[in-house]
Amino acid sequence: MHVERSVLTTIGAMLVLMTALPWFVGQVSEDVFFEWPFFLEVAIGGLLSGVMYSLVALGFVLIFKASGVFNFAQGAMVLFAALSFVGLKDLGVPLWLCFILTAGIMTLVAMTIERLVLRPLVNQEPIILFMVTIGIAYVLDGLGQMIWGSEVRMLDIGLPQDPSFFFDGKILINQFDMFAALIAGALVAALVIFFQYTKTGRALRAVADDHQAAMSVGIPLQHIWVVVWTVAGLVALVAGIMWGGKLGVQFSLALIALKALPVLILGGFTSIPGAIIGGLIVGAGEKVSEVFLGPLVGGGIEDWFAYMLALVFLVFRPQGLFGEKIIERV
Amino acid sequence: MKLTTFALGLAAATLLGSSAVQAADAQFIGSTVYRTGPYAPGGIPWADGFADYVNLLSERDGGINGVPLELEECDTAYNTDKGVECYERLKDKGSTGMPAVMPLSTGITYALLDRVKADKIPLLTAGYGRADAADGTVFPYIFNPPATYWGGADVAIQYIASEFGGTENLKGKKIALVYHDSAYGKEPINTLKALAEQHGYKLSLFPVPHPGLEQKSTWLKIGRQLRPDYVIMYGWGVMNATAIKEAAAVNYPRDKFIGIWWTGNEQDVIPAGKAAIGYKALQFNAIGADFPVHQDIIKYLYENGKGSAKSPDIVGQAAYNRGLQQAVIVTEAIRAAMNIYGNAPVTGEQVAHALDSFDLNAERLKALGLEGLMEPIKLSCSDHQGGGHAQVTQWDGKTWQSITDWITPNEEMLRAMYEESAAAYAKEQGITPRSCD
Q1: Residues 224-263 of A with CB under 8 A from B
Q2: Which of A273, A326, B350, B376 is deepest in the core (most CB within 10 A)?
């Protein structure tokens, strides 16, 4: 993968700023407690949270990359997948079978969306497809709750929840977060292999590069859309299981899409590595800012800080860190 | 053919007429609830408790004082716009309109303040909404029994003080407030600050932006940096379970962590699993289904397939009993109005008048099968709260266990605060407080 020098410079500058600013504030303000081990603990915790954000952002990227559609329903897909998974589990189905069955359900959802919604709208404006995904989000939200109920459900997937201490107790890291990051990493590796080394993956990349050129060499667009929505559904399933294991499966899971938006703006809407790096920057950035800059302004800056970071990025790099620079000729 | 048509028309007119008469005789009760949306897990058991108690009165007693009841729910999804829409849709239903509105949301409460005054419909907020509405001279149509957020903050501090051996030992202690960054979450701040000045503890504030899915940095600050002696939480929805899990993740002891009643549902602790064991919450109602009223609910409703909840296991949960308690307050207020104005459907204005001298005493609670479930409530023209008692419960991994008796908030201090805040509101809005002499 070729990485522009300016991207590396930007990331480097952000890392320096994210380290130097808290240190400086810690020296001049009595309200802020700064010690290097604690800073590292916050930054590592943020990076691990960032991986969880990336997991959600990946679903958006996959669909946008292949079809140019910003899928507003990705959060609803996470909720629907998690509700189906935990619903089956509560019926006594073993976990591995729940995963396979829910993957089947998400494939069915992808096929239904392609057949009933996307196919009749081929060649329509992107904004129309975007509006359609808002409709899909509402349908999935309602359908999921109608079938499985709105009650909160506990989801224990057997991951350890206890904190681990390192460096004589100076740094604490939550084991669940570590395992979640590993699983997310494995998912990304699987996606990379799928995109780079399989025939379908190559077809997906071809469609992403140029719809019409791909069709002209015989790649069936409708089939590709089903595949990409299915893959996004599977990513939503993994994200739903990890977030559901953390918070319990409930309607609020649909709101985690909000956490993915700044990640997308930062990383770029069309780049899988962008979603990962964007997630890590947003995760670490918001935690470091909340802990070390938050006390200066009364706290509660975590959420809007991520969006502010994304907005600043929009000004200088509208395509994000790894997104494609779109030049439209008139 | 013409004769048949005429006969059918006559029969239809008779049927319609009789149902209209029946509807005219029934007392309408509107219930704004949320069974959908991000906060549905806490809203569903509340709505079930409310509906079950009203339906119990219908099935067991034939209504209130012989007047049948007609209950209609409207789902707000905890959304203020929808809440106002629900209010407008329900307010004129039934022969006498909606006798009271229970918005079940602080946001909707604020949006309805002026409307209920114009419509003369009492607004009941059990354990939420504006705390200063306890001053009935400024808020004639708002009633907030049995407790307010400010009273809850005082009770929490009283309990924490008892843990440290008395209020004198609070000096120098560190207490943190983790709160939903909204009008609701900010309600206890002034009370906790006033108490901090009084007792000498140091208060640290930690706002959590809605919806509270991610709180790692908040808890790193609390558990790894500040290490307070106690944490108080005013949270809602997914924020609660997340906070409990993050507290566990930074090894903050759960038995030094106490939340307001809206953080004390089964739905808040079950998703947190073992991490929630030891966590404490205030309640203004007892928990469990061991009360005579629950036995009647099972007998008259669930054994006949008429229960509102999906399963009878929900009966007796914290939020269920809270909804039931709200239903008790509103139906007893309607009964009190009927005792004054006669046994026929009553209007909002008549219920508001009855609430100004509402007396739900121990004897009456016993007769209703509610002894021990809640404390008596006595309202007056100027006191629209009436009591404010709460108790502390602790989650043992399966159920909430009551660990204190009912604690009475410091009414003297709170009353002064209610009156000061209400007076400021009256000045801002140009309201002349009514005389209660």
Answers
A1: 243, 246-252, 254-256, 259
A2: B350
